[in-house]
Amino acid sequence: GYYFYQYNGSQSLSYDDEQEELKSHITIRFSHVVAENTPKGLAAQKFAELVSEKTKGQVKVEIYQNGVLYSDDDEYEALQNGDIQMIAPSFSKLIDTVPEWKVLDLPFIFERETQAKAVFTGETSEQLLSMITDPKVTGLGFWSNGFKQMTSNKTALLEPDDFQGQTFRVMPGPIIAEQFRLLKANTIVMSFNEVYQVLETKKIDGQENTLSNIYSNRLYKVQQHLTISNHGYLGYAVMVNQEFWENLPDDIQKKIQQAMIETTKWNMKESVHMNAQQLQEIQKNSPIQIHYLTEQQKQKWLQTFQPLYQKVENEVGNELIKQIQFPSD
Ligand code: LMR
């Protein structure tokens, strides 16, 4: 495809030189919606460095962060069209195209970081990636951000009843919406880069996100209460435009895959560290009240979410649920 290289058309090059010439002009435009100083922002940079190193500069990854190029509403379509070559959306946003991934959004399905790591790097990750059926898109791997927490401007969110009547921003995805519906809360779907402003102007009361996203987008500055609930897991599917990918020479594909594996390993460690460190920053830099969900409260949330487990089990099957809960390494 013309979109990833410009061949200068010279007739005098040998076949080998021609191949080198083609390779030397590959650019991967990678668009994402979060800040640079986040698990995804840093993983994107690490990936770009490793790709450049492994291909000796033949492949260049250009990063467009903070949604400057596309928001989470339109980045998927831009990838399908080949306007960009790589994105890494939250899997919540992909459930329309990969219905089985509903399982990943079930509240409390992830309980430990080691479990997330096993799911996103082991055999299960291969299986999850193979569920992508969109012929315009290829999945290359999963990156992590971390556990999601709840924030509100109105009350501490500890008992299921505390949510009642409040309005929360949600990212697209049926499971998260249903989770809040069971808590008798209202939701508004909104793209990530709009959240700060709607919280600031009090158009909505609260939201759920990782500490990293709450910190880097300064959401903690416009919220009164933060509950460390670890109720959901925010992970990303790293995807490339399929036609672009298939047109890459084999050796380049291998090098990119290797860079992806190394980046993912690095990202899984880095994300845990970042979220912990940024909780401390939030604590230091704002008067926000931080609450910790007790085991007893968690059990009440789980009870509230039981119908959602039932629904997803009916739709996707118990086997995948069990596999995510108890992944093999
Ligand atoms: C969100 O929309 O809140 C997140 O999915 C943003 C992100 O990419 O981490």
Describe what this molecule looks like in 3D.
The protein is an alpha/beta fold and 329 residues long. Helices cover 43% and strands 19% of the residues. Helix 2 (39-54) packs antiparallel against helix 10 (250-285) and helix 4 packs across helix 5 (123-130). The two termini are 38 Å apart. Mean pLDDT is 93; it is low at 1-10. The structure holds (2S)-2-hydroxybutanedioic acid. (2S)-2-hydroxybutanedioic acid is lined by residues 33-34, 40, 72, 90, 145, 171, 192, 209, 213, 234. Pfam families: DctP (PF03480).
Which tags fit this structure?
329 residues, nine-stranded mixed sheet, 19% strand, globular, disordered N terminus, binds (2S)-2-hydroxybutanedioic acid
Individual helix count:
12
Q: Mind summarizing the main beta sheet?
A: 9 strands, mixed
Give the cofactors and ligands.
Answer: (2S)-2-hydroxybutanedioic acid
Distance between the termini: 38 Å
How many strands in all?
9
User: What are the low-pLDDT stretches, counting only 5+ consecutive residues below 50?
Assistant: 1-10
